[in-house]
Amino acid sequence: MAQLKNIGELNLIRDLMNRFPTAGSEVIKGIGDDCAVFKSDDKALLFTTDIMVEGVHFLSETKNPSSLAKKLLAVNLSDVAAMGGRTRAGLLTVALPGETETDFWNEFIKVLSDEFLSRWIDLIGGDTSSSPGPLILNLALIGTADIKNVIYRSGASEGDAIYVSRALGDSAAGLDLLRHDEPGFERHAFERLVTAHDSPRAEEDLGPFLAKTGLITAMIDISDGLTTDLSHVAEASGLGAELYLKDLPISDEAKSLGRILKKDPVNWALTGGEDYALLFTSRESRAAELEKLVRENMGRDIRKVGRMKAAPGLEGVDAESRFLLTGRGYEHFQPEGE
Ligand code: ADP
Ligand code: MG
Fold it and tell me: Cα 278 from chain centroid?
């Protein structure tokens, strides 16, 4: 009998898209971007939701209520930022095993409420159930933006410069570090990588700033890995892309761990996922202006890592050669052979 694990997450979502065509004239974007976009006068309402399941997204042995609260919020904030919006409100849905300790739950709620309060986000509802198995946490967020500023995955053109907002691969390196337990690894570096994995930061200020510059053509957050998320932008825009591997920003900490574990940190950057940096595109002719605006207003440097091209597919480019990038990030229900 056919089983879901052989179908693949992307195929499941594609099937949902076909079976639920959007009819409402207020729906500007349904399934297929970081948020759904709903029109309300000249404002866009942005909707996103993400789930975290014990045993899939975090391990029972190491689950930490504070990190879980921060990560649950960050992964959702990141999707709102990737559309160029700001988050206003949220709905929290949980399925809790009866054995969950009250201290664990209280700490989770305390941290989540502090995070909400500090950003002026309101918790406006949700749902609560017991769970006969794993702890399941789901957050849905509602964001807003001016309709004219919303940035989609589909807006890139041939020749556009591809940027990432910050170093990639720290989260994957942090996960490797937790798995390998390298006692000799320098403490400060350990903390940077493990924190990147446990409590990632969303680009909640940069996303709306970029959108308002009017210089961004497409945007996505890097949740599944650079190659997978760039391929979403390329496919949605009807294009391909090339990545300059030597220009990928990689932290000194990830490089140093790569030397110890004898792993190439470029692979963490390409396929690791869970970085929650932003990937975005800009016309090449406006690229210098964009870099200057971000430096002057946000005090940081964005990194040009590639170029959109007409031919479909992703290519890696290094000093010696060009090659097809087939490495994929994490996909649920990975179909066999893919
Ligand atoms: P992201 O990584 O940005 O959170 P996903 O890969 O989870 O995005 O989802 C891709 C798209 O598919 C999004 O538009 C999301 O809303 C939609 N989607 C995922 N799962 C479902 C579902 N069960 N029902 C409807 N839409 C879904
Ligand atoms: Mg996303």
Answer: 7
C-beta separation of 183 from 267 below 8 A: no
Which DSSP letter does residue 54 get? B
Joined tokens for residue 103: 């201290």
Task: Give strand pairing partners of 282.
Answer: 161
73: Cβ contacts below 8 Å, ≥ 6 apart = 90, 112, 115, 116, 139, 202
DSSP labels, 226-238: HHHHHHHHHHHHT
CA gap 101, 64 in Å, rounded: 12
Q: Which residues contact 136 (CB under 8 A, 6 or more apart)?
A: 51, 52, 53, 54, 94, 95
CA of 331 to the centre of ligand 1 (A): 12
Spatial separation of the C-alpha atoms in residues 43 and 39, rounded to whole Å: 6
Q: Closest Cα to atom 17, ligand 1: which residue? A: 31
Q: Is 229 in the pocket of ligand 1 (CB under 6 A)?
A: no
* Geometric angle at alpha carbon 67, from 61 and 69, rounded to 5°: 115
**Of 13, 221, 222, which is best to mutate to test ligand 1, by the most ligand atoms within 8 angstroms of its C-beta?**
13
How many Cβ atoms are within 10 Å of 283's Cβ, its own excluded?
Answer: 16
pLDDT (tens, 9 = 90+) of the chain, 338 residues, equals 788 888 888 899 999 999 998 877 899 999 999 999 999 999 999 999 999 999 999 989 889 999 999 999 999 999 999 999 999 999 999 999 999 999 999 999 999 999 999 999 999 999 999 999 999 999 999 999 999 999 999 999 999 999 999 999 999 999 998 888 777 788 888 999 999 998 999 999 999 999 999 999 999 999 999 999 999 999 999 999 999 999 999 999 999 999 998 889 999 999 988 999 999 999 999 999 999 999 999 999 999 999 999 999 999 998 888 888 875 544 455 554 44
Tokens at 57, concatenated: 């997204």
Q: Give the whole-angstrom CA distance, residue 150 versus residue 143.
A: 11
Length of the chain: 338
